[in-house]
Each structure stands twice: as C-alpha cells, then as structure tokens.
Amino acid sequence: MMDGPLIVIGASAGGLEALEALVRDLPPDLPAAVCIVLHIGDRPTAAPSILDRAGPLPASHARDREPLRAGRIHVAPPGCHLVVEPPRCLRLSRGPREHGTRPAVDPLFRSAARACGPAVIGVVLSGSWNDGTAGLAEIKRRGGIAVVQDPADARHPGMPRSALDHVAVDHCVPAAAMGALLARLAAERDADAAPPAASKEAPMEGMYDLNRPAALTCPDCGGALRETKVDTLPYFTCHIGHRYGADSMEEAQLHRMEQAFEVALRALNERADLCRRLAETAQGMGQALSAKRWDEAGREAHDRAEVLIRFLGEEWIRPSIHLGSGGAPDRF
User: Fold this and answer.
1) Which pTM was predicted?
2) What topology is assigned to 6-188 in CATH?
3) Tens digit of pLDDT for each residue in 183-235?
4) Of 42, 179, 213, 247, whose CB neighbour count within 10 A is largest?
5) Any idea which UniProt keywords this protein has (predicted)?
6) Distance in angstroms (rounded) separating the CA atoms of residues 326 and 80
C-alpha cells in the first residue's frame, strides 16, 4: 500500500497529447502514484498503452480495489468513474455521470482530497467546459497542490481556464514542463501530513445516492410542482398548470413509476434478443468464444428483466389521505 504523495490528473479533448508530454519526463523512481481520468465515455481506449510507451512509468487501466502504488500510472477504464477510497485504495463506479460523462474528473479529485488530504497534487490539462474545477478547489481546501496547464499551451483551453478563474492555482505551466515540475513537487511533498478525517458515513464518490428531492415533478410534463393546501388537503400544481389532489397525485406517480419499469423491461428484453442474435451470428462464423460471451450477456439481460417483472407484479402500499370515519383523525 502506497504512503507517499498522490498525483491526480484530469483531461479531455487534446488531453492525450498533453499527457504524453507530461509522462515523458516523470522519473522511473517517482515517489507518487498517478491516477488519470480522460473523457472517453464508454469507448475502448488505447490510452494506457500509449502512456506506457511514452514514458518510464508502467501504465494500465485501474482495477476495482487495486491498491495505489508509487511509480505506477492508473488510468480510468471506459464507462467507470475512478475514485480513491481510504486507506488509499482505488474503486471503480458506474454511478451517475458528471458533466455528461463517465469517467469524470471531479469524482477522482474529490475522493483523492478526502482520502489523502495534503498529500494530493491535482492537475488539470486540456479540455472543454469545466470538469475538474470543483474537484481542484476541494484538493486546495484540504491542503493539496493545484497545477494547471497553461491555456495558451492547451489545444482546448476551457478546463484549464475555468480552473484558473475559480481556484487559487499554485502552478500554471506548459505540458512539456509539467513532468519535471510534478517530480519535484512529489519529492518535496510532506507525504506524512495527516489527511482530514473522512466520515465513515460519507458515501463513496461517484455513486448513486438518494438525497431528498429538491421538488416533486409533474407526472404529466415533468415540471416542478408547487404544493399548496385547501384547508388541510394538499394540492400539487406545476408551472404550466397541471394540478393534482393528494390521491390523484399518488395515483399518477405510481402510474409513471410503472411506466418507467416497463420501459426498462422493454429495453432489457430487446438487449437479450440482440445478444442472442449476435451469438448466433458469431456461432455461424465459427467464433465460439465470441458466441459464448454474447450468450452470457443475453442471459444477464434476461435475468435482470426477471427482477423487474417481480417488481411489476408486486402490490404497493396505498395509504389513504382521507380522514378516518366521521372526519376525525385516526387514533392508535
């Protein structure tokens, strides 16, 4: 398990070129682990092999529950957020997208700041929009160092410029100068500085969470609902005029929930059929291993559809909003 500094790097459009220049000058005995998020979505990527060839440090896709190791480059795999969990363990999450993408930079930065505190060096490279800005601010808030690629050097300056506009950045340099800078910062960083205590109740970064909704939404149009009362009976009205009493709102909400389950069920059933067709195609081409994997994917989709069918077949608890007999409140 690594106890030294941690370098976390976020990049998007134009970032792979900047990363190649950065890793080229990292020393083989770098006393820090390196974690990288590139905006690749679900697409397969050769980034780890490219970075492995570009510099002296070994690079590979991160694996779930893999320990951080000094002198290694861990790259977020397609379709997964890469986060750091105490004590310095890597986790992969298929939680909600941030900034429209998964993997995203902010979950990595926030989790690293929480897990490693002042031992973290955060780096924002070329990219559009502002992913990484909030995470870099969290790294600074917990005593870490903020490094940004010079926007004039970035093919897409949006991410570096956003970080410079909103975070007290410590260093702003071209990509070609960044490897030497990070090597020096890692050597100087006090790796023994205690990170802020992380709450054991805090959820892992990059995961789905069930917070209280900011507002209920209209079952008809999806707009936010405003709650009012007529005497003691609640009414819900959206901003274009759809209006529900308590019972009709509960009925409409259940109907929309059932529709959502049915849409998911339809999608799973179609995926199962697609996988079966592709398994048959692969089998006909003599690709037995590919056929086996498509068949397994089809069974997986079918099994998950069966779970939804069970949900759809179960009754929901339906308490009444009306007062008890004679208009008096229920008594227990």
Assistant:
1) 0.79
2) Rossmann fold (3.40.50)
3) 999 999 754 455 555 555 456 677 788 888 888 999 999 999 999 987 778 88
4) 179
5) Chemotaxis, Cytoplasm, Hydrolase, Plasmid
6) 57
